[in-house]
Amino acid sequence: MAYITALITAFLATIVIARTVRSPTPPMGWNSYNTWSCSPSEDKIKESSEGLLALGLDKVGYNFVTVDCGWPSRDRDSDGKLQWNATLFPSGGKALGDFMHGLGLDFGLYSGAGYLQCGSTDLPASLGFEQLDAESFAEWGGDSLKYDNCYSTSNTTMVDSSSAESQSPARFQHMAAELDAVDRDIQYYVCQWGIGTDVGHWAADIGNTWRISNDIYNAWRSIWRITNQVVPYYRHTKAGAFADMDMLIVGLNALSAEEERFHFGMWAINKSPLIIGAALDEDRISETSLEIMSNKEVIAINQDLLAKQARLVRRFTEEEWDIWLGGLTGSRQILGIANWRNDSQSVSFDLRSIGVASAQARNVWSASDLGAVSGTQTIDLAGHELRLWLLSDVVTSAPLSSSTYYAAVNATRSGSASIVTCAAGACLPTGSKVGNIASNASVAFSNVSVQSDGKKIIGVDFVNYDYAFTTAWEFGDNTRNMTVSVNGEKAKRWAFPLSGGDWEESGRLIVEVDGFKQGTANDVAFSGFGTGLAPDLVGFEVLD
Ligand SMILES: *[C@@H]1O[C@H](CO)[C@@H](O)[C@H](O)[C@H]1NC(C)=O
Ligand SMILES: *[C@@H]1O[C@H](CO)[C@@H](O)[C@H](O)[C@H]1NC(C)=O
Ligand SMILES: *[C@@H]1O[C@H](CO)[C@@H](O)[C@H](O)[C@H]1NC(C)=O
Ligand SMILES: *[C@@H]1O[C@H](CO)[C@@H](O)[C@H](O)[C@H]1NC(C)=O
Ligand SMILES: *[C@@H]1O[C@H](CO)[C@@H](O)[C@H](O)[C@H]1NC(C)=O
Ligand SMILES: *[C@@H]1O[C@H](CO)[C@@H](O)[C@H](O)[C@H]1NC(C)=O
Ligand SMILES: *[C@@H]1O[C@H](CO)[C@@H](O)[C@H](O)[C@H]1NC(C)=O
């Protein structure tokens, strides 16, 4: 408890310095977009707000309603102020804010950093009107602002993600300053889409939350894409600043119940805001979806005051499963075992290898205590299941260690693979990397030492910043495949997630590779796969 108090005090201290209004835990609420697209109305918003209460969602923490795109009139008034579309919102913004507050809910507003709003051809956004609009948001009683990134360069091109204007932090920082200047606490939800570079760096300074990717699509494939994109943002996620994986598609009839649990759980452990997109109407939302989004134990993990994003600690790509681990208050941890395969499978792993000597475990979704766990665990996963274990009384095991670092620049390169030198302090830990690794190229290491025969855990340092924004709505993939072959044996493939905030910030993927022979004479070769390039390779070490 003392620990939690200290945390809150430290957190309040940050608010004063940063001036921006922060919520210490990820925001939870509802947004009109996934149900109503850019066609909200006063009736729809009021019914949804009342629905949120009727379904008891306020009781478990969902406390705001955001009116997304489509609310304003085409014309600003004679003073240049934004106006609500009087046909759609006859009572206007202030009355809607009062209504929301009367229900005990916060009022979420929406605008954009460009000329026009997303999803329209003529509705104004805030570029050039930042101060006036921030004042209007305050007058209407707004408690948060979602700030989007459409029409950044013209009144005709809605999405121009390669433009300097849409990639720059400047317009988002401008609105942050104007929100700071008004006499009302307004949370700021940056929706820049995670384009350009170093978004986590600048966005965590100004936003409660910041979108890391293109929109979620109402299909399972979005879950893989966005999950791979959030991986490196653990460096920036902290109390008051959360990477936003986008609104939930739970309850939108696209996923199975198992997949909805996976999606909700993955968002929860990564400390994404939990923003419901489903219709808040008991006739339109299934009891199962409602139960998933109301699960108090999963919500408590998301709302944990330590505010630490989970880490991808192990990936088994050909076997299609991952292990995730995240710190929680009270020396607890959340363990996530993600089955990306659309079939059941039995998986095994040694808790010691992820740093846990022993713990008390609770299966979160089944709400059952498992007692003490240690050593090798074998778990039967359903297709697309995310098993969540809450670990308490955790006794940590000694971290894995290595004696030698194998730098890619010192390996034997073949084919297209070429050395890239990086800026000082980048491409850690070596300062350089090998790029352009196609499937017919390789980066080969000889004389790799291991202490025993067989399977080894290796830490691969790589760079992938292929955020795949423009292809994301279809089947575009932000991961990169790379294969590893030991002593000439059959190469095995791994999908590498995003590594950082640009093409020089490395990440580490820890994988298990078989075929080693005791001694100093192992050959380890990395290659591309298929038609795409591999991630850039910095180097690796054997965690023996
Ligand atoms: C208000 O919204 C309606 C319905 O979308 C639209 O027909 C009308 O032109 C809008 N009015 C203004 C002034 O933007
Ligand atoms: C977009 O339209 C507005 C209003 O007509 C105008 O002020 C602005 O200059 C236009 N922007 C561009 C880039 O043409
Ligand atoms: C997963 O399997 C189920 C049952 O076979 C099938 O209906 C569904 O389309 C599959 N989902 C995906 C994303 O392939
Ligand atoms: C590459 O090998 C040379 C010679 O052994 C060594 O000095 C250098 O540190 C190595 N480079 C890296 C990045 O480890
Ligand atoms: C290697 O693969 C790349 C990309 O797939 C291709 O452009 C190139 O021609 C190939 N080179 C050789 C020598 O086969
Ligand atoms: C590997 O080790 C052997 C024996 O020490 C040595 O002769 C050889 O040059 C080494 N190969 C490389 C590529 O370092
Ligand atoms: C990686 O390989 C898998 C399996 O062949 C393939 O489905 C996927 O599209 C590949 N990803 C990329 C980015 O090439």
Automatic annotation (TrEMBL):
EC class name: hydrolase
Record bears the keyword Nucleotide-binding: no
Protein name: Alpha-galactosidase
Coiled-coil ranges (or none): none
SUPFAM superfamilies given in the database record: (Trans)glycosidases, Glycosyl hydrolase domain
Transmembrane regions listed in the UniProt entry: none
The entry's keywords: Disulfide bond, Glycosidase, Hydrolase, Signal
Signal sequence bounds: 1-18
UniProt record, GO biological process: carbohydrate metabolic process
Catalytic reactions of this protein: Hydrolysis of terminal, non-reducing alpha-D-galactose residues in alpha-D-galactosides, including galactose oligosaccharides, galactomannans and galactolipids
Family recorded in the similarity comment: Belongs to the glycosyl hydrolase 27 family.
Assigned EC number: 3.2.1.22
GO molecular function: alpha-galactosidase activity
InterPro entries: Aldolase_TIM, GH, Glyco_hydro_27, Glyco_hydro_b, Melibiase_C
CDD domains: CBM35_galactosidase-like, GH27
Signal listed as a keyword: yes
Domain Alpha galactosidase C-terminal intervals: 319-391
Organism per entry: Setomelanomma holmii
